[in-house]
Design a protein that fits this description.
With 477 residues, the chain is α+β, with helices and mostly antiparallel strands. 56% of the residues lie in helices and 15% in strands. The protein contains 10 helices and 11 strands. Strands 6-8-9-11-10 form a 5-stranded mixed sheet, with helices on one face. A 4-stranded antiparallel sheet has the order 2-1-4-3, with helices on one face. The protein has a two-stranded antiparallel ribbon with strand order 5-7. Helix 7 crosses helix 10.
């Protein structure tokens, strides 16, 4: 026996379906009740006005006939004369009465003519006593009476039944038909709403169910999951944001794995050197003297610097970097540090060119800024070929302090520029430990700049090397 797959039902889809259906059913019911009542009452009011006008027309014509004839003998039980009068007054341009309710309301048999003493001249007989009693206790309305006047004298009266009385017989002919049509319209609207709610809830449920499954896979560590990006609605934008999130998490996982591997590599090298030298001393291959201890001390210092750098970056990531901000002149601090380092740079063949224009007050930590300048100086000294040049300029632009740090060759390719601030990243040609770098200096420099509310960008230098552009907000007045 063939088994069909079970249809997954989305709770959100069911809620949406129920909400749309209930709202549309209630709206349709209210529309039906309001329109039905309005149609019923409005139609009766309209008939009241029309019937009153017709009765007034007939009463006027009967008064004129009385003036000419002087009595009601010509009309006494003469239905033909009565029909001719009604026809001439109410539908003079038609050979036959109009169809439908208009003809019913202008039927001569629905009117009654009485003389001045109240005796019936023509029309339906007056109700019997029992009928009057039943009428008294019923909801029927009393007949309408219009006086028939001739030359200012009341000569009779025209009695007609109100439209509501006539409607007791024929309102179902019209009102029921209109309400049936309205009910068909409302039912069609409810059915269309039902189909619309079903399709919309199925579509939304399918989309959200796919997002829920993808999110579950993402929380389980499957960062390769992606959602289809269809359309330009909010769900499509949400799918794009989800894909960006998945790509970011996947990139972070790769970076974390590479970060752990690089840290292990950086720690393993000095530890291996320490282990080898200690074993050599233990085996008597290398003497235990001041030179051997100095070599061990250098490796320990390298490990200590690496651990301190890692700790600083960890504090920066956690937002716990110890920075004590106060108002200071960054131009003065930078100029003093570079002048102190001028001889240190010239010792390796790098000339220093300064163009620092102050003052430039910012909110900063002098110790952290010195650490920033030291990292940039160490990077320039380590990776600039001799003879080389370092050009540093400082100016104030758009309420910001801008520092341009440019060095000479060698440079890096366009692909490697954005990766220079990645942790433990080194350009391939520079990966050697004789320079003493850990690959964290530029990452630490970026963290220190950001801790001061600034940013740092890298580009190619006109001198052939790199150009680091640092921006810091000016201190408020």
């Amino acid at each position: 026996m063939r088994r069909f797959p079970k249809l997954a039902v989305s709770r959100l889809g069911l809620k949406l379906f129920a909400t749309i259906l209930i709202v549309n059913v209630l709206t349709s019911a209210l529309i039906f009740l309001f329109v039905s009542r309005s149609l019923d009452q409005g139609f009766i009011d309209y008939l009241e006005r029309v019937q009153t006008q017709r009765a007034e027309t007939l009463a006027t014509a009967l008064g004129e006939e009385w003036t000419v004839r002087g009595d009601w003998q010509w009309l006494q039980d003469n239905e033909r004369a009565w029909f001719r009068l009604v026809h001439r007054q109410l539908w003079p341009d038609r050979e036959r009465p109009p169809p439908g309710i208009q003809g019913q309301l202008s039927d001569p048999r629905e009117f009654q003519v009485r003389d001045a003493q109240g005796n019936v001249v023509i029309g339906p007989p007056p109700p019997r006593d029992g009928d009057d009693e039943r009428r008294k206790h019923s909801r029927h309305e009393a007949p309408r009476v219009l006086p028939i006047v001739s030359q200012g004298q009341r000569v009779g009266e025209l009695v007609y039944r109100p439209p509501r009385e006539l409607m007791a017989r024929m309102d179902r002919i019209f009102i029921d038909r209109q309400q049936r049509n309205l009910l068909i319209i409302v039912g069609s609207l409810a059915l269309a709403s039902l189909l619309l709610a079903g399709v919309l809830s199925w579509w939304l449920g399918r989309r959200t169910r796919g997002m829920a499954l993808a999110t579950r896979r993402l929380t389980e560590g499957d960062y390769s999951v992606r959602l289809a990006e269809r359309g330009h609605d909010e769900l499509s934008r949400l799918a794009r944001d989800f894909n960006v999130l998945a790509e970011t998490l996947e990139a972070n996982r790769r970076a974390r794995q590479r970060w752990v591997a690089d840290i292990a590599h950086e720690l393993r090298t000095p530890l291996a050197v320490l282990h080898g030298e200690i074993e050599a001393m233990q085996d008597g291959i290398r003497p235990l003297d001041a030179d051997s201890l100095g070599s061990l001390s250098q490796e320990v210092a390298q490990l200590e610097r690496l651990v301190q750098d890692l700790r600083l970056l960890a504090q920066s990531d956690a937002g716990a970097l110890d920075v004590h901000l106060e108002t200071l002149d960054i131009a003065k601090a930078l100029n003093e540090r570079l002048e102190d380092a001028r001889g240190w740079l010239e010792s390796v063949g790098i000339t220093l060119d300064l163009a620092i224009h102050g003052p430039a007050p910012i909110r900063g930590d002098l110790q952290r800024l010195h650490q920033l300048w030291n990292n940039l100086l160490s990077n320039t000294r380590a990776y600039t070929d001799a003879p080389g040049q370092l050009r540093v300029s400082l100016d104030v632009v758009d309420n910001q302090v801008r520092i341009r740090w440019e060095d000479s060759a060698p440079g890096v390719s366009d692909e490697e520029l954005p990766r220079l601030i990645e942790r433990l990243y080194r350009v391939e040609a520079s990966r050697n430990r004789r320079l003493g770098g850990s690959g964290l200096g530029l990452s630490i420099a970026m963290a220190l700049v950001q801790a001061h509310g600034g940013d740092m960008q890298v580009s190619h230098s006109t001198l052939g090397g790199l150009c680091w552009t640092l921006r810091f907000p000016l201190a408020g007045e």
